[in-house]
Amino acid sequence: MAQMQASTVEQITKLKTKAASREVDAQRKYDELQLQLKAEVVMREAETRRKYDKFQLQFQNMMKMFQ
């Protein structure tokens, strides 16, 4: 009886350890994806800003031509 209880406790402990390990892995992957997404957003914002500045300059040059 005591051996069965010890075996059951050992199995539960192993399952809890595996679950905790999976949770840590999932959190790490989530954090990595969050960082990737943030980096992509920064890159897109920079590209959008560059295009906006380019068109703004073109517009200003066109306005000078009509003055």
UniProtKB/TrEMBL annotation:
Name of the featured protein: Uncharacterized protein
Lineage: Eukaryota, Viridiplantae, Streptophyta, Embryophyta, Tracheophyta
